[in-house]
Amino acid sequence: MRKSVLLTAAALIVAALNVTAQPADGPPPDQGDGPPQHRPHHRPPPLPIVTVLDANGDGTIDADEIANAPAALKKLDKNGDGQLTIDEYMPPRPDGTNGPPPGPDGKRPVPPIVAALDLNGDGIIDASEIAAASTSLLKLDKNGDGKLTPDEYRPMPPRRRGPPPEDGDQPPGPPPDDGSKPAGPPPRQ
Fold this sequence. Notes:
Elements: H1 2-21, H2 48-53, H3 63-67, H4 69-74, H5 86-89, H6 112-117, H7 127-131, H8 133-138, H9 150-153
């Protein structure tokens, strides 16, 4: 009987400690000290440049929207100087900068739609580039159907790092040795 009283008391103490260990207004379970929990994939908001070009909001920039591209792009010109700078055509990031995060080389990748419009690659879509927008956008039309779907104007997602290749799966490289040349260094004498 004494053992059951001690076990019951210990269980109550442990339960009370668990209840008081986390305040009611504490962080959600996925923000604790442990490793981050898996979250569903979150797609970033569309680029402002895509939002103005896709007038009907269906995700496809159709032939009429491509034809109207110069007028649509002018809506992004916040300061009325006739050109679009990165702060006008790219959304602000949580860190306060505009554009995508830097890649492994430290450079920020340019979305395909911006690269197509910014003909000289200086990061500014100037008045002449805005005027040529319809022609420039058609260069992204991979299948020649006269419209741009998200897979044509959105950047490709970063390659997923996976497990190393299994035996037999060789990365691309030079063709296997055909025996006409020595493979590797000559044997030691």
